[in-house]
Amino acid sequence: MQKYPKVNVIILNAFQTSNLEECLNSLRKTEYPDYKIIVVDCLTKGIKEYINNKFPEVQLIALDEDIGPAAMHNVGMQNSDPDAEYLAFLDNDISVDKDWLNELVRCITSNTCNGAVQSKIMLYDKPEYFNTKGNKANYLAVGWPDGYNEHDDGDTRIKEISFPSGACMIMRREALETVGGYDPDYFIYADDMDAGLRIYLAGYRILYCPRSVIYHKYKFLKNPRNFYYLSRNRIFTFLKLYDTRTYVRLLPPFLVYESAMIGYAIQNGCLIHLLKAYADILQNFSDIRKKRSKIRSYKKVTDNEIFLKLEGAIHFPEISSHPAVKYLLNPFLQGYRKWVLIE
Predict the structure, then answer these.
(1) pLDDT given for residue 3 in this prediction
(2) Last residue of a domain, one of 216, 246, 270
(3) Rounded distance, CA 105 to CA 108, Å?
(4) Residues 245 and 106 in one domain
(5) What is the pTM of this model?
């Protein structure tokens, strides 16, 4: 008889139930035999009565403050069943195919080195087009959804990726516990990249499973708040990845990229938010060093292996289509990776 490991499916929700209802109704189609749904909610009015009346099979963790998605992942993990070997994390604005979890479990259990696996994530309003077919990051910790807005190519091959999208992934509990869970200081954005890259640093593989299909109401929102968190958290991650001496070699591309970000911020009226991100980095630099020391205690890959795994140029159309990025920044980042960083 086939053994099905227990999975806890953890959904993050905040402030409303409009997306959550469709998500939970969709999950009822899941054909995997041994899973439990946990909803971690922040500040949704009447959420307890709502869950009890409409979805009594769901375990609810109702929080009375907005702690941010990064910390909400940890709350979900801490309140999950101790015997659940695998934790699936979902955003609340997704719907799933009936075999989504079967395929994720089949993939992650195929090798004990598999630490996290991402589904094929399609755009909800354009279901034949990708939201992401495995997230990518470059060596400066700039991350993006690979294949965004491209037509589904029908490729069903499993492949290694930089990090899994927080919209839908499964993680090996042991791997997530090894790296200390999510970093709550991120609050929102790039927390999935940070957690995924740390799991990779611990010696696990991060995979993309195209036979597991979900649909995501994704929007790439450009506003000062998002720019602040994305800028700050990108640098948070960058400063935790490498050994100390490696940062000397990384200083030129880092300064070039930050100069480009300053120019972008001035042009788009959000310089104050970028400066706030830089101030936060300086204020928290001591804590960042402590986190980097903790990473060294379980880090099993060399910095050169990181350079080989991560991208050089940025290939997200919303960014890479800009002439300055296409003809100046990307060629420099790619060339520096090839000729200076990779040994």
Answers:
(1) 85
(2) 216
(3) 5
(4) no
(5) 0.96
Token pair recorded at residue 72: 């909400």
pLDDT tens, position by position, 234-286: 999 999 999 999 999 999 999 999 999 999 999 999 999 999 999 999 999 99
Q: Identify which has the larger pLDDT, 317 or 183.
A: 183
Say if residue 30's pLDDT is above 80.
Answer: yes
Q: What is the DSSP string of 237-257?
A: HHHHHS-TTHHHHHHHHHHHH
pLDDT digits (tens, 9 = 90+) for 185-212: 999 999 999 999 999 999 999 999 999 9
Q: Are residues 228 and 207 in the same domain?
A: no
* Same domain as 291, residue 183: no
Longest alpha-carbon distance in the chain: 62
Cβ-contact 243, 301 below 8 angstroms:
no
Residue 2 lies in a domain: no
How long a stretch of residues is the chain?
343
* CA quadruple 171, 173, 174, 178: dihedral sign: positive
Among 184, 216, 248, residue at a domain's last position = 216
The predicted pLDDT at position 1 comes to 61
Domain that holds residue 139: 7-216
Strands (E), 112-193: 114-123, 126-132, 135-137, 143-145, 159-160, 168-172
SS3 state at 318? helix
Answer yes or no: are the C-beta atoms of 2 and 35 closer than 8 Å: no
Measured CA to CA, the distance from residue 270 to residue 187 in angstroms comes to: 20
How high is the pLDDT of residue 229?
A: 97
Answer yes or no: is 330 within a domain: yes
The burial class, CB within 10 Å (0-12 / 13-18 / 19+), for 276 is middle
